Amino acid sequence: MLIIMLALLGTAAVLLRRNQALALAELLPGRFVALSSVGVGIELLGLRVGGELGHGLVVIGLAALIVSCWPLRRWAGGWLLIVGLSLNAIAMAFHGHMPITPQVLEQIGVTHPIGTVLGGSKDIVAAGWLAQWLGDRFITAIPSLRYTIAWSLGDLLLIGGICRAATGQVRHGLSA
Fold it and tell me: I need a labelling partner for 71 at 20 to 30 A (CA). Which of 22, 35, 122, 174 fits?
């Protein structure tokens, strides 16, 4: 769901600030775009495979995403993107999926035992301080659609970074 939300936010930023998006795209080297695409593919494959192999693929995919985001560090909002992605990577690397606590699920109105991978989701029910602090814990309900989203701290930083990049000034020569 986060990928869809980020894609929608990115698309809106491109439509609303086309020149800004084109200037940012020019600053991003093609090799990092390719590495990011590979990282996303590996991560998604890992979430679908499961087990030790899936866990390893998630870690490799997230590492590729973090490396591919390095040129963004000098953009407006770039550090927010990198820190948000890193927080999500830590949580997912430890649990193999994004952790969500039983308490958050209870607030949503769902119950599953610890260790359950939630179908149609990237989440796994987990306990502990890492799951509590870095897992999905902020709840947004959309009653008209009968839909509920749980966000992590990393997700919020990613979205903040995208919004900042979309609205900030583009300075050429900062992609190194």
Answer: 122
Residue 176 in any domain: the answer is: no
Handedness of CA 100, 103, 105, 111 (dihedral sign): positive
* Residue 152 DSSP SS3: coil
The amino acid that residue 150 corresponds to is A
The strand pair at 123-125 and 138-142 is best described as unpaired
Residue 32 lies in a domain: yes
101 band by pLDDT with thresholds 50, 70 and 90: very high
Domain-located, residue 157:
yes
Q: Which domain holds residue 93?
A: 2-167
**114 touches 103 (CB < 8 A):** no
169, with CB counted inside 10 A (0-12, 13-18, 19+), is exposed
How many structural domains are present in the chain?
A: 1
Q: pLDDT at position 175, please? A: 43
| Residue 136: inside a domain | yes
Whether this model's pTM surpasses 0.85 = no
Q: Which of 95, 167, 154 is nearest to 130 (CA)?
A: 95
Residue labelled with tokens 């407006």: 76
